[in-house]
Amino acid sequence: MNCYKLSSHTPLEALLKKLDVTPEGCAILKQKAHLNLIYIKDLKTPAANILKQDALSIGADLAVPKETITCKVPMVDALLIANDKQLKELSIKERVQPFGLKALAKELEELRFTCKHDFSVMGILNTNEDSFFQGSRFSGKAALRHIERMIEEGASIIDVGGVSSRPGSVGVSEEEELSRIAPIVDLIAQHHLTCKAKFSLDSYSPLCLEYALSRGFQIVNDITALANDDVARMAATHQASVVLMHMKGEPSSMQESPKYENVVLEVDAFFEERIEKAKRFGIEKIILDVGIGFGKTLEQNVQLLQHHEHFLRFGYPLLVGASRKSMIDKIIATPIEKRLAGTLALHVKAYEHGASIIRAHDVYEHVQALSVARALQTIV
Question: Are residues 272 and 321 in the same domain?
Fold first, then answer.
């Protein structure tokens, strides 16, 4: 008899099928094998004591500060450690408990994650001269050839932008932005490329978005997350998908000492608010983007990637865009032109933590890397 230890990332469902476990058995065992670590902020101390006892009673646990049992402080933070089955049981138990535990029960139910294995690569094309990566800047027929090449390499979405949103960038008028993107939008329409891939406009200009959406574009990539009601109305009218991205401040100043008490919870609250607004305007096709590099320090960017799976609780696809960004340079000094390897490391990690749309400058390399990452999740 021999045995060996499996990785915690082993594709369990495929392994159980290989062992010829019944479908009913697979369903039960999958719940027991996925461990959740859930950080709970500002939990009333009596609630913490109740939750700990309930967790222990079903084989889970709750890590709390040592003075919690004495109730010397009114609120504490806690760490819940539970598999999917225990999480479900605990959410049922807490529905009848006081001290805010009824509301917590609802959140625990939402946080029973499912890993996403499919991915789409969103290729980047910029029609401006101030985008931070020169390799993404194209115009005229060269832009058309680059779009066709990205589609051939496996991009299922092409994101076109006419204004840079890099840290320190300054905006331009709607008319100037339109003069940059209109020739490319027209070429895309003339060559019927919207039949080969989906097209997204990286803009928050109603004028530019109306131009693109009326010519076959299907996605609004809005770094302001529908701050402008006119953009929300337009997206709803065209039944477009909308990327809601979190950004702290404005591009011109967003990297000047951004501060958060808890970046994951603040981004979560932002998404909740903007999703509600999108729905109020009749927008149903929503994509969430935590906004790597948009008003975040290196540590905050890393925290968002480490806990990216948290945002699956909203039930919408997650987009990540860390391509060649300065966080790589902050980890290991690297010029923009040589940040492909670091980009792939960040994006594969984001994919493993729930991202299903990867916005990237280098399409071929991303399709290859993500195809391998997917195989590692599905082949035993």
Answer: yes
